[in-house]
Amino acid sequence: MPPSVKLVSIGTSLPPHIIDQREAAAATYEAFSSRFADFERLAKVFESSGIRRRYGVRPIDWYLDTAGWPARNAAFIEGASALFVEAAKRSLEAAQLAASDVDTIVTVSSTGIATPSLEARVGKEMGFRDDVERVPVFGLGCAGGVSGLSIAARLAASRPGSVVLLVAVETCTLAFRLDKLTKANIVATALFGDGAAACIVRAGDAGVAEIEMSGQHTWRDTLDIMGWSVDPEGLGVIFDRAIPPFAESNLRPAIEAILSKSNLTVQDVDRFACHPGGAKVINALEDALTLQRGALDHERNVLSEFGNMSSPTALFVLDRLLASGLPRRTLLTAMGPGFTVSCVSLGET
């Protein structure tokens, strides 16, 4: 029987600049109110988002003055690299490992372009070996952290004893756009934050949780729900359909189908750990999964303190759950572009 795959540790990191939600609302009002007739109605999202503060790789004034793809992508490379290093070092330290012990690196990011990819750019600073295997993953958006953990687990299972490092790092705030007079852009300025989370995954060793199974479901004809547009100014957010009602109507059957492949049901899950995309999304998740209102408490706290950081956010929630003690089975879930839900089941060790 092959050895079980364990999550050994998690490390997180945040950029240096705090974006208070009230300051963000004021800055957005200054930038849009005179140019966008529907701004007053849309601006209510700053109060209803469930967010108190977020963190950015640049101070808030930078977003009001900077334009153009080159400047934004340069900020991504600099900011994401720093976040990668801090999160990776924290996960390695928690696992009592050195960077030279890492055999495979899975890097998940969808908020900028880096070729060579981020793990190569920070390899010397980190101390990775010359023969480390690199697996950069792009385009999974908010589902990337959970999907990345699934990929890391399968890679670890294929080579028992090897050390797999997953790093999910995003700089979502760089998509703030002064030129986009759209509802989606206003919502993005109210929700997005930057951050990174790193995990050590290994087969055959002790860990903080066992990775039992994983799965993914992509709904047909849903490419318009979430994604990026690309133009000379940079990346522009696409929210062309309301995500909360879609999640409430469609999430549970997809999760039931994923679980059934491992002969599990929703009733076998003791705790759902979900990507908190926004306050309305969390409510929709509780309704879809028939949870009591307030059951996703760690999700609400992570959203309040850090905003929607895209791919790392679900791993921040998992970190909180680990600190409070995982139940017998936890299902980590996140939805992202595709439109897709990704799941990883974690059991107590």
Please summarize what this structure is.
By secondary structure, the protein is an alpha+beta fold.
CATH arch. level architecture of the largest domain: 3-Layer(aba) Sandwich
The number of helical elements comes to 13
Approximately how much helix is present in the residues?
25-40%
Helical/strand content category:
alpha+beta
CATH fold-level assignment of the largest domain: Peroxisomal Thiolase, Chain A, domain 1
Overall 3D form: globular
Instruction: Profile the largest sheet.
Output: 9 strands, mixed
Portion of residues in beta strands equals 15-25%
How are the strands ordered across the major sheet? 5-4-6-7-1-8-13-12-11
CATH class of the largest domain: Alpha Beta
Order of helices and strands: EEHHHEHHEHHEHEHEEEEHEHHHEE
Total separate domains: 2
Question: Rg, please?
Answer: 19 Å
Oligomeric form of this entry?
single chain
Give the CATH H-level superfamily of the largest domain. Answer: Thiolase/Chalcone synthase
Mean pLDDT across all amino acids: 92
Contiguous uncertain segments of 5+ residues:
none
Distance between the termini: 17 Å
Number of strands: 13
